[in-house]
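seq:
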Amino acid sequence: MEHSDREIKRYFRNIFGFRVRNVEPFRIALTHKSASSTDVVGGRLNNERLEYLGDAILGAIIADFLYHKYPLEYEGVLTRMRSKLVNRNRLNNLARKLGLPEMMRMDNHISSNTPNGNAFEAVVGAIYMDQGFKKTYDIVLRNVFLAHLDIDTIYVEDDDYKSRVLIWAQHNKHKVAFSVKSSDSRKDPHYRVVLSLDGKEWTQGMGNSVKKAEQAAAEKALASLKEDEA
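struct:
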C-alpha cells in the first residue's frame, strides 16, 4: 500500500516521536525491492541502500549503548549481546511491534518476515539522513529498544555458558579445554565432558549430546567463579 506524505509524517511522529523534515528518505525506506520504481536517471528506488546504511548506524548505536551500560564486561560478551539485540528475528519482531509491515509498499506475494527487519534498518538509515546521528541515537534507543525490549532480561538470559567460560579464560590468560570422556550405548547415548583449566580438571558435565554436556560443565565452572568472587 502506498501512503501519502501526511500519513508517513504522522506515523513517524506517533510511533517514533519526532517530526520528519524531508519525507523522501522515509518513502524510499518503506519501499521493498518488489515495489521498486525507476528514478529520472533509470535507477531503481527501493530501501536496499538505506538498509545498508541503517545496519551500520544501528550497530554503532547499540555498541555504544552496551559499552556504557556494562562497563565491566569483556569485549566478547558485548559483541554477543549486540548480536542478540540486532539479529534478524529481533528486528523482525520490533518491526511488527512498530507497525512497519502496514506501512510498507511491497508485492502482496512477499510473505517472509525478512523484509520487516530489513525495513527497520532502512528506517534507521532514513532517520539518520533526516535527523543526524545524535538525534537518531536518542530516537532508536528511547522510542524503540528501551520502549519495547527488556535489555537486562535479555542480558541475564544468556545461556551460552561455554562461550562465557572461553571469554573469561582468554581475558585472564588461562587455558581451557573440553574433552569427552565417555559415551554410553548408541541407543541411549549419554556423554560426560570434563572441563580442564590450565591442564587440571575443573568441572564435569553430563548430557545426551556432547554440546549439552559441555554446557553443563561450563555452567558449573561459572558457578564456581561466582562463589570465589563472593
